[in-house]
Amino acid sequence: LFEQAESNDILPPQAQLESLLNVFKSNLRALTSYAPEMYDGQLQLFRAAEGGADSDAAMAWDSFAEEVVTYSVPGNHYTLMTNTNVRALAALIKTHLDQGVGESRVS
């Protein structure tokens, strides 16, 4: 079955599948061993306006930053980076960078 799927271009070649599996394994190891530290500053969270994560998922970021400011940008998880939507995202980011929002704090 595997050979038929591969020969009919339904699946990529076995070498590519093995490579993808190795990337997946590496990502899984990184995910399970990573322990984020608390960020002592303001985190800017840009969320897709359509569907996707609910407010509880967004508020999970509260565990990792002193302050979280959430912005809604047009699109969904998949269309957020399309031409029109990415321009809106870029404009929002530029506005905040120009205002100095999120500048590093001097201790």
Strand content: 15-25%
Cα-atom Rg, whole angstroms? Answer: 20 Å
Strand order of the largest sheet: 1-2
Note the run of SSEs as H and E. HHEHEH
Integer average pLDDT: 83
Largest sheet: 2 strands, parallel
- Which regions have little confidence, pLDDT < 50, spanning 5+ residues? none
Count of DSSP-assigned helices: 4
The helical percent reads: 40-55%
Shape: extended
What would your notes on this structure say?
With 107 residues, this protein is α+β, with helices and mostly antiparallel strands. Helix content is 44%, strand content 18%. The protein has four helices and two strands; from the N terminus they run H-H-E-H-E-H. Strands 1-2 form a two-stranded parallel ribbon. The radius of gyration is 20 Å and the shape is extended. The model has no long low-confidence stretch (mean pLDDT 83).
Give a quick precis of the structure.
The chain has helices at residues 2-7, 14-33, 55-59, 83-98, and strands spanning 39-48, 65-73.
List the helices and strands and how they pair.
Layout: H1 2-7, H2 14-33, E1 39-48, H3 55-59, E2 65-73, H4 83-98
Q: What descriptors fit this protein?
A:
107 residues; two-stranded parallel sheet; 44% helix; extended
